[in-house]
Write a structure and sequence with these properties.
- With 320 residues, the protein is of the alpha/beta class.
- It has two domains: 6-53; 61-317, 2-enoyl-CoA Hydratase, Chain A, domain 1 (Alpha-Beta Complex).
- It is built from 14 helices and eight strands.
- The protein has helices at residues 9-27, 34-53, 57-64, 72-79, 121-126, 134-150, 167-171, 174-187, 202-209, 227-234, 241-248, 252-258, 276-294, 299-311; strands spanning 81-85, 98-105, 108-115, 154-160, 192-201, 213-217, 221-223, 263-265.
- Helix 4 (72-79) crosses helix 13 and helix 8 (174-187) packs parallel to helix 9 (202-209).
- The longest helix has 20 residues, at 34-53.
Length: 320
Amino acid sequence: MTHYLEFEKPLAEIEGKAEELRAMARQNEEMDVVSEAEALDKKAAEMLIDLYKNLTPWRKCQVARHPERPHCKDYIHALFTDYTTLAGDRNFADDDAVMGGIARFEDKPVVVIGHEKGNDTKSRIERNFGMARPEGYRKAIRLMELADKFGMPVITLVDTPGAYPGKGAEERGQSEAIARSTEKCLQIGVPLVSVVIGEGGSGGAVAFATANRVAMLEHSIYSVISPEGCASILWKDTEKMREAAEALRLTAQDLKKLGVNDLIINEPQGGAHRDCNLAQVSVKAAISGLLKELSGKSPKVLINDRRKRFLDIGSSGLTA
């Protein structure tokens, strides 16, 4: 069953009617509803285009969080071969909110790291809804060091509402782990490409996305705080999240103007969740192009390029 977002309710009614007609036809073969169903399909397709033509920032937040949107695990299985999980931070524990390991991308060895939210109640609890603990960031540091040692490019897939703010995480040095992961991103002498596939929340995202090149899916978001959190702080009212989403300039389109991301990856009509295979093909093409752009550069050039990129963020959009 398709999960419809709040603003997609009119679309849900039309697609539901089309499916009802087909269900009735399956029960009674004498019924001829093909033309009626096709007419509803056409109307639904037109409505889908209209709904997604100019999404507001808040609606983009809803699409970025869609439960059926492909997650890190889906992209790893679709884009990489010979993936071997490397678990644990060699200090405290393994963190299931962070996936990582060695794999092949277009038959070349790489290290891939990403946030995994899970796709049902059980897996979401196991993955802590994609909110990494300190051991997750320390695992990422270990994998980046491994990549640097053996000259393997690093690909990160960002999809997190933010780092886990629980007491245990704070006791184990959450802020220090995030800072060191960000620092490690700036230090490694291999190409580092990051793709925001859903949510890019606060320092929890920056710790993986301090890259040579950052790409964002068309309906993904990337911000210093969630709209709900921003609204709670500024207006003491989480219902102001729509206004907060506007003010945060968290969409891929706004961030491209500010120089935060380098590439916007087009999604299938209606979002990545409507055609996961097509979304995965688009992400693969984007990663391939960005890696080719960085190929052959020396470690010193890659490190300087990465640092300069982040020092320049915002300069191109100060008057926007």
